[in-house]
C-alpha cells in the first residue's frame, strides 16, 4: 500500500479587499500538496458572496461569514481566482 503524501509546510494567509474585479487569491506560487481550506472572514458593502475558481470560471460561492470551501481541485493556490458580486470581502486560508 503506497504511503500518503503529506505536506512539508503549512500554507496560510488571507486576502482582503476582494471586489467585483476578480484577482488571484495570492500572487506567490503556492503548491497545494493535500488540501487548503478557504473561509470567509468578512463581507461588506452589500457583498453577498465570494466566488472561487480558476481563470475560466468561478463556480464556487461562499455566501456567509464563516462559510468554508476545501481547495483540492487545483494544484497551486496562485491559480485560484476570487471575486465578489458587489462590495468587498476577505478570505483566509489554511492547509498544506
What is the fold's blueprint, element by element?
Layout: E1 11-18, E2 23-24, E3 36-44, E4 50-53, E5 60-62, E6 68-71, E7 81-84, E8 88-95
Antiparallel strand pairs: 1-8, 2-7, 3-6, 3-8, 4-5, 4-7
Describe the structure.
By secondary structure, the protein is mainly beta. The chain is built from no helices and eight strands. The protein has a single domain, classed as Jelly Rolls (Sandwich). It has a four-stranded antiparallel beta sheet with strand order 1-8-3-6, with no helix packed on it. It has a four-stranded antiparallel beta sheet with strand order 2-7-4-5, with no helix packed on it. β4 (50-53) and β5 (60-62) form a beta hairpin. It is elongated. The model has no long low-confidence stretch (mean pLDDT 94).
Task: Describe this structure in a few short sentences.
The chain has one domain (about 10-95): Jelly Rolls.
